[in-house]
Amino acid sequence: MTMSSATDSMTVLTGMYAAEAEYLAAGGPGKASFDLLAPFFAPDVELHQAAALPYGGTWRGHRGMEQFFLTMGGVWESFDMVEQEFLATGETAVVLTQVRARARATGRELGFPILQTITIKDGLIREVRPFYWDTQAIAEACAVPASTT
Questions:
Q1: Whether residue 145 has pLDDT greater than 60
Q2: Are strands 57-60 and 124-132 parallel, antiparallel or unpaired?
């Protein structure tokens, strides 16, 4: 672990989050090109989401990441990263994000933290593991309301 590898990891992370903001500003999933984000992810990247979430599972490769963003766009009407803190040591980074989101199905708004471990090697994000404080609250907020008939 060297200071330069931690600095390189921070450069990749800040670049990716800036590209994500540009991607969302350009219309996001289904409207903006994933090409804005692709340069930051390894071709075989893996994103591991908690199974209890409406977008749970493992998403692999650039195509998987693109599908993940499309799925997220279907679940959330808005998903704002209000505040972020970064810690990088070598190939491992930890990102704490405070989120404010509105579920598309219910209109409910939630505020919640996400802690992500991110593996960065050779200047590319190889693996992302988000940890949510309360997956049940998120799943409930995103659930399609039951029919009243």
A1: no
A2: unpaired
DSSP letters along the chain, please?
Answer: --HHHHHHHHHHHHHHHHHHHHHHHTT-TTTS-GGGTGGGEEEEEEEEE-TTSTT-EEEEHHHHHHHHHHHHHHHEEEEEEEEEEEEEETTEEEEEEEEEEEETTT--EEEEEEEEEEEEETTEEEEEEEEES-HHHHHHHHSPPPP--
Report the alpha-carbon distance of residue 145 to residue 126 in Å, rounded: 37
Average pLDDT, the chain: 89
- Report which of 118, 100, 99 is spatially closest to residue 15, judged by C-alpha positions: 118
Output the pTM of the full model. 0.87
Report how far residue 88's alpha carbon sits from residue 95's, in angstroms, rounded to the nearest whole number. 9
Q: What pLDDT, on a 0 to 100 scale, did the predictor assign at position 21?
A: 85
Query: Nearest-5° angle of CA 138, CA 73, CA 53?
Result: 30
